[in-house]
Amino acid sequence: MTIKLGVPSKGRLMEKTFDWFGARGVSLSRTGSEREYSGAVEGIEGVELVLLSAGEIPRELAAGRIHLGVTGIDLVQEKLVQWDQKVQVLAELGFGHADLIVAVPACWVDVNTLDDLDAAAAAFRARHGFRMRIATKYHRLVRAYLHAGGVADYQLVDSQGATEGTVKNLTAEAIADITSSGETLRANHLKLLAEAPVLRSQATLFRSRVAQLSEADRGVLRALCAQLGVE
Amino acid sequence: MSLPLIRAKAEALKARFAASGAAPVDCAVLQPAEILLDLYGEDVRTRAFVTTDPVRGEVVLRPDFTVPVVQMHMAEGAEPARYTYAGEVFRRQEAHPERASEYFQVGYEVFDRNGAAADAEVFALFAEVLEPYGLRPVTGDIGILTAAVQGLDTSAARRAALMRHIWRPRRFRALLDRYSGRAPMPASRAALLAASDPMAGAGPMIGLRSEAEIRQRVELLRLDAEEPTLSAEQVTLIDALMRVSEACPYALERMRDIAVDMPAIAPAVEAYDARCEALAARGVDVARLAFDAGYGRSSMEYYDGFVFGFICPQRPDWPPVATGGRYDALTRQLGQGREIPAVGAVIRPGLLVELDARDGRGPEVGA
Question: Both A7 and A86 in a single domain?
Answer without folding.
Answer: yes
